C-alpha cells in the first residue's frame, strides 16, 4: 500500500473530529483518536495544528462555514422577518444535528467545557472570518428589516446582536431539555418569542405573526428540498 496523501490532511482531521463529536462527544477528542479516525498519525495532527486546542479552533470554523452555507440556502424574499425566522429555524436544525459541535462553536458548557485560547486572535467564537461570514446573513436581513420600516430606525448590527442572543438562548435551553413540558416548543416558545421581539422593534403584532408563519413555511420548503 502507498502512503496516504497528506495535502488534504487538515480537512480530514477536521472532519474526523466533527464526526467524533457527533458520535461520542468531546471526551473522544484526543490526538490519537482523531488521527485514527482520519487514517493519519498523531504527528500529522501536531504538524498541521500544533495541538488539540488549535484543531478545535479549525473545527469551530468548519461549523460556522456549515452554518453560513445553511443560511445561504434561505432565499431573500420581500419579507425580512420571515427570512430571519427561517434562518432561526435553520440555526436550530444545525445545532440539533451536532449539539457538541454547536457547544464548541459558541463556547457553551451544557455537555462539556470549551475554553478559548489565551491569544485573542485564536478565540473560537465571534472573531474568526468563518463566524463573520455566517453572521453577515443575519445583519443583511436586519438591514432589510430596518429599510422596510417595520422596525424603528437603529443600527442593524444592534438588532442582529439582540436576535442572535434570543435565538441562541432558546437553542441552548432546548438542547439542555428545559422545554420538556411543551408538546411543540417551537410553536409554543420560539415562534411567539420571535413575534414579541418583532413587535418590540416596532412591527404590528398581526403582521409579525403572519411573517413568522410565512418564515416557518419557507423553512419547511427548504428542508423538503434538501
UniProtKB/TrEMBL annotation:
It holds the Pfam family TetR_C_33. Keywords: DNA-binding, Transcription, Transcription regulation. Gene3D superfamilies: Tetracycline Repressor, domain 2. Residues 7-67 form the HTH tetR-type domain. Residues 30-49 bind DNA. It comes from the Bacteria. This is TetR/AcrR family transcriptional regulator. It comes from Streptomyces akebiae. The lineage of its organism: Bacteria, Bacillati, Actinomycetota, Actinomycetes, Kitasatosporales.
Amino acid at each position: 500500500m502507498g502512503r496516504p496523501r497528506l495535502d488534504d490532511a487538515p480537512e480530514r482531521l477536521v472532519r474526523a473530529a466533527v464526526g467524533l463529536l457527533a458520535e461520542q462527544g468531546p471526551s473522544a477528542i484526543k490526538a490519537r483518536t482523531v488521527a485514527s479516525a482520519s487514517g493519519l498519525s498523531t504527528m500529522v495532527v501536531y504538524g498541521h495544528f500544533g495541538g488539540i486546542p488549535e484543531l478545535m479552533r479549525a473545527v469551530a470554523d468548519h461549523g460556522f462555514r456549515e452554518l453560513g452555507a445553511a443560511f445561504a440556502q434561505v432565499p431573500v424574499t420581500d419579507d425580512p422577518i420571515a427570512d430571519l425566522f427561517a434562518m432561526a429555524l435553520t440555526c436550530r436544525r444545525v445545532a440539533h444535528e451536532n449539539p457538541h459541535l454547536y457547544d464548541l462553536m459558541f463556547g457553551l458548557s451544557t455537555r462539556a467545557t470549551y475554553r478559548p485560547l489565551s491569544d485573542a486572535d485564536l478565540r473560537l467564537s465571534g472573531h474568526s472570518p468563518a463566524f463573520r461570514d455566517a453572521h453577515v446573513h443575519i445583519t443583511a436581513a436586519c438591514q432589510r428589516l430596518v429599510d422596510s420600516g417595520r422596525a424603528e430606525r437603529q443600527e442593524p448590527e444592534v438588532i442582529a446582536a439582540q436576535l442572535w442572543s434570543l435565538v441562541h438562548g432558546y437553542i441552548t435551553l432546548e438542547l439542555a431539555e428545559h422545554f420538556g413540558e411543551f408538546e411543540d416548543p417551537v410553536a409554543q416558545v420560539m415562534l411567539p418569542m420571535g413575534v414579541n421581539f418583532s413587535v418590540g422593534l416596532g412591527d404590528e403584532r398581526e403582521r409579525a405573526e403572519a411573517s413568522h408563519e410565512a418564515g416557518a413555511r419557507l423553512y419547511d420548503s427548504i428542508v423538503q428540498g434538501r
